[in-house]
Amino acid sequence: MIRILLFGPQGAGKGTIGAMMVDKYGIPLIGTGQMLRDAIKEETELGKTAKGYMDKGNLVPAELVAGIVNERVQKENKGYILDGFPRNLEQAEMFDQMDDVDYIIVFEVPKDMSLYRLSGRRTCKECGAVYNVNPDGFPHPKEEGRCDKCGGELIQRDDDKPEAIEQRLKTYQRETKPILERYKHKVFTLDATLPVDQIFEKTTEIIDKKEARK
Ligand code: AMP
């Protein structure tokens, strides 16, 4: 059982590295942002309520997210990679009631790099796959504006637009980062300005070294 939480500001590469870890460890990536975006697409009650908060770059009320996270983590008996929860003190307290954690990986990037990476981020309207169209972006779509996987149109998320990004980065610094203090001895901080393959290598090194000692 390996339970990993990913932390870091928007554009740090959590989703990208998380997806690479899924292949290596054979455990699922639970991304709360993606789950909420799916709910919006499916026009569920949760999606309808969440949209207004998300478009402005604000956090959705904790009780709405905690329910869907709890359902998933209880189900995954080999472990999971959780991206996007907990995001503030209230959620950290809720998470304490749900499960324990083995690794907290924190991806650190300066604000200008977050903004640069998010400006190039594009998401497939159909399947949610994520690309980056900056010259050094990863992964780059093979055909401009089209998803490699399903051919869907690539769009910029409403909350990847400048005003919402500012708000999301502020929320991370003000509400999310301080909760790391609670998990001190399980926290591993990485320089996420490095190329993706190097960040991935360092992440797996941390986990593999400790798992080998178990
Ligand atoms: P993300 O893709 O993780 O940046 O999440 C996108 C948006 O979804 C955030 O800006 C929030 O509005 C919402 N969201 C995702 N996870 C949470 C959470 N744990 N608590 C509250 N809102 C969340």
Care to describe what's here?
By secondary structure, the protein is an alpha/beta fold. The chain has a domain of 128 residues: P-loop containing nucleotide triphosphate hydrolases (Rossmann fold, 3-Layer(aba) Sandwich). The strands form two sheets. Strands 2-3-1-4-8 form a five-stranded parallel beta sheet, sandwiched between helices. A three-stranded antiparallel beta sheet has the order 6-5-7. A hairpin with a 5-residue loop joins strand 5 and strand 6. The protein is globular. It binds adenosine monophosphate. Adenosine monophosphate binds next to helix 2 and helix 3.
Basic shape: globular
Largest beta sheet, briefly? Answer: 5 strands, parallel
CATH architecture of the domain at 2-109 and 187-206: 3-Layer(aba) Sandwich
Low-confidence segments, given as residue ranges, are: none
Q: Over the alpha carbons, how many angstroms does the gyration radius reach?
A: 17 Å
Given helix and strand content, the structural type is: alpha/beta
Q: What is the helix content? A: 40-55%
CATH superfamily of the domain at 2-109 and 187-206: P-loop containing nucleotide triphosphate hydrolases
Mean pLDDT: 94
Distance between the termini: 11 Å
List of distinct ligands in this structure? adenosine monophosphate
In terms of DSSP E residues, the strand content is 15-25%
- For this structure, what is the CATH class of the domain at 2-109 and 187-206? Alpha Beta
Key descriptive features of the protein:
214 residues; alpha/beta; Rossmann fold; 5-stranded parallel sheet; 3-stranded antiparallel sheet; 8 helices; binds adenosine monophosphate
